[in-house]
Amino acid sequence: MQTKQNLDYKQQARLLRALANETRLKIIDALSRGEMHVGALAEATGAEQSSVSKHLAVLRAVGVVDDERRGNEVYYRLLTPCVVEFFSCALRVIKERQA
Q1: Labelling 31: which of 60, 63, 77, 96 has CA 20 to 30 A away?
Q2: How far is the C-alpha of 66 from the C-alpha of 56, rounded, in Å?
Q3: Contact in structure between 51 and 35 (CB atoms under 8 Å)
């Protein structure tokens, strides 16, 4: 029988798997400064536009980003800006391990 706590762990693991990619981290970092369209995100991350689109689909599926079509462009924004706080925590762990 699946408990609510176990379901929460499963969902958290799914989210962390989605975040465990360098390009996705770059996308989130760029979006932490404001909404952007795919072309601008490709430029900001140094990745191909098609690759960025695939990464955005993963982040959208776990509820980190949302999109809005405006004319021919699709703009993305962070739905959960608190994810950036997680990055700060991760960097703190890394720095403490290096000390």
Answers
A1: 96
A2: 9
A3: no
For the chain, the residue count is 99
CB atoms within 10 A of CB 43: 13
Mean pLDDT in order along the chain per 10 residues (99 residues): 78 91 96 96 96 97 95 93 85 86
Buried b (16+ CB within 10 A) or exposed e, 1-31: eeeeeeeeeeeeeebeebbeeebbbbbbebb
Rounded distance between C-alpha atoms, residue 49 and residue 38, angstroms: 6
CATH number for 4-98: choose from 3.90.950.20, 3.30.450.40, 3.40.720.10, 1.10.10.10. 1.10.10.10
Angle at CA of residue 52, ends 77 and 81, nearest 5°: 25
